[in-house]
Amino acid sequence: MQRTLEEWLDYQLRTHAQAIAMGLDRVREVARRLRIGKPGRQVVVVGGTNGKGSTVAFIETIARAAGLRVGAFTSPHLLRYNERVRVDGIDASDVQLIAAFERIEAARTTAGEEIIPLTYFEFGTLAALLLFEQSNLDIAILEVGLGGRLDAVNIVDADVAVITTVDLDHQDYLGPDRETIGADKAGILRAGKPCVLGEKDPPSSVLRHAYEIGAFAIRAHSDYLIDSLERGWRWREPGFEIDLPLPALAAPAQLDNAAAAIAALRALPFPIPDAAMISGVADARVPGRLQKIGEAPEVVVDVAHNPQAARQLADWLVRNPKPTHAVFSALRDKDIEAVVAVLDPQMLDWTVAGIGDAGVRGMTGEALRQRLLMQIAPERIRAFASVGAALAAARAAARPDERVLVFGSFHTVADALTSG
Fold first, then answer.
1. 47 sits in which H/E element
2. What domains are defined for the chain?
3. Which of 89, 194, 199, 378 has CA 20 to 30 A from 185's CA?
């Protein structure tokens, strides 16, 4: 009997002993058995600590406005697994994903061959590559899941690599500091190919690796510049400049993401008309990034869940002042204390919630509250079992002219979106 998509996903969570297993040998061997070729005429691989999903969206939207056929693989999803694989802006169907998973399962368990264990993310990566290969794409955009060097996406050679930012996250897997993490993320670079570095001061480990392998580094605020204008902004490099509207994506960091996307597209062998860049920057959308979901009080959701993202969120709050109540939940392995320290000066109070669908990485609302009592006075923090309950309580406490900011993990934002 054929499995449903949900049954396939449950199976994938159980079929490997570890949720995260770094390394390319297993996934590369299954790809060999599947005879997976290049997923598009050109491949853009996007890595980094924050800004990956937004940068993918800018590349995708601009390229589609230019008339190109584009596939995008992103993770994690917010509401439906199908969001992870898109062709020409349309999410993959259950039928397409199931057919891909069936092929992957047959390949990894081929009679007479060693059975290859795959993680949930590796199944998804291979499914995206299979669907893209069948789709006659001009550009395949692949978002790195974790790190770079040993991420499943890195079995594909990038024609252009993008590293958005490098900061502290997933230190258990990637290392304790920016230099070590940057060296891992630089693993997506390829010799003789362009790599866009989207922050002003990337770790020296990234630059060193680019120079060592002969990758062509295109650096933000150096090889291309971003100028603020009264009613927008200007992207420019020697011999070319274009005036652009502000992105609909609200955070100040989105200018850097949009600029990196333009640099990546200009490094590809496709003509990108000015009109496509203008409309693509204006039209790109990513759910869960400073997304407004309510009024009176204003309710905004954001997936900020590490210190760098928290700093960017604090910057937005300073630029958009309004009395703000925090609704927060995060996975236990995140640097929760650092996130809260950055944002607490902007918050009236905190309503924290549990995450119940994240396995051992989840925690109860009360456990999160206890963890934060060293930073937040007891009268300013209360706990609820679920994000939905926490959001309802914060809304009830907020005045119509105030704001409720729901942030933390993708689980947090997804729960807020579904609870209304």
1. strand 42-47
2. 5-283 (3.40.1190.10), 291-419 (3.90.190.20)
3. 89
